[in-house]
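User: Predict the complex with glutamine.
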Amino acid sequence: MYYTIKETVAALKSGETTSEKLVQSSIETFTADQKSEKPLNAFLEIYGDAIECAKKADAEIAEARANGTIESLYKSKPLLGLPFANKDNISSKGHKLTCSSKILEGYVAPYNATVIARLVEAGAIPLGRCNQDEFAMGSSTEYSTYGATRNPINRDYVSGGSSGGSAAAVSANQALFGLGTETGGSVRLPASYCGIYGLKPTYGVLSRWGVVAYGSSLDQVGVLGHTPQDIAIPLSAMSGVDFYDDTSADLPRSENLAELSAYKDFSSLKIAVPKQFEEAKGLDQDVKKVFEDTKAWFVSKGAKIETVDLPVLEASIASYYVIALSEAASNLSRFDGIRYGNRVDNQKGYDQLYIDTRSKGFGPEVKRRIIIGNYVLSEQFSGTTYKKGMSIRARIQREVAALFESYDLILCPTCPTASFRLGEKYDDPLAMYLSDLYTVFVNLARIPSISVPAGFTSKENKASSQMPVGIQFAGKMFDDVKLLEIAQAWEEDHKACGIPVKENK
Ligand code: GLN
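Assistant: Here is the predicted structure with glutamine placed in the model:
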């Protein structure tokens, strides 16, 4: 495995490596990992046809090299031969899709999600499906039926969630890039915990067709990679209007993604730091220190930073959990033992069939959320909770949009703490929900945000071994390309994911 997409493409073009070798190396790492004392558990499965797809790509590459058409081949298929990690809630035709839940055990996706179809069209190879919190509900990947995904930096720590499998796979160099999904931070949070980049695009930029719904008005596919460029290339292949998703939209300036340039115009960049986030209880001192260093970097480049007051942000977690859980209760009603997946039928009639199927099929966190969601939507409470949650969301959208009339960027930590020990928050759902303190306003406001690897916790911190810390650059709707350019400038100054694996050998 090479470190970046560009390096890998160069090696494939020259014949220094083959797609088959790349897939083979992932299979070997996966198999060895499964036998290790503390398995990472990033992939649940390497797809059985990955090698076959790689061989086809190799044949195409070899033919083009012989004909002298390799450059034009890569123009039309920029990801040819590159394996990527998929998440277990994104449909890849003919492959299992379980959302890491018992209720979908054995379910096979009958079609490709649009994001998968577009990656395959660009030549990429779906390598396998990665672990996640059941139905993407969680912040640590511990709420998976298949056990937690460990953090590659320290295997006694969580990988973050819910896209912890994809993040760990990329961080451990088992895949070049990975797909995750976000409802309230599930790409950015594990990116931060695993020390890589993770982008949550503007709502609509990536089609949701074929992605299992959690909270549809918040759900979005996101990308994980070692560099902003590694996110930009797949993003350019996947983005844009899709007939099957009415909320999909084209990404402005997407033609700049293939050759991402580092942002230069820092002297005209105005950055807002919400006071509510800086003063939040529970913000770890080490995270605060990394945040200060990040601010100092922006200032050294010539940007202006101002503290802003946005009191409504204090209600973002409450608003998020009310809306997300209401939508989840409604979306998950389709898993009834009739239409999808596993059925438990004790021959006691339909009502009992639904009850038994859902009682057996869903894990405790999913049940907790369905119960809260239905409670919130019930007639006597919806006025005080659901409608209130919605009006707070509208205020967040309005005030964030107004802020972007004067500022280019909102800067804040990705999470209040770095990764924590496995089991530490498992039995304390409220503590787990608070991990999302800085991420959910982005989904509520439908804006784009990237988590960049910005530093580590200190050696002196007794609560944690030295773990990565991510900082978010959030921008206005459809400013995704600009965010990636700013992140690319960060990357060029910091080589943020550490020493590239090749140089490390
Ligand atoms: N941690 C949040 C939740 O559990 C976000 C999950 C997500 O983004 N899928 O709802």
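The chain has one domain: 1-311+395-505.
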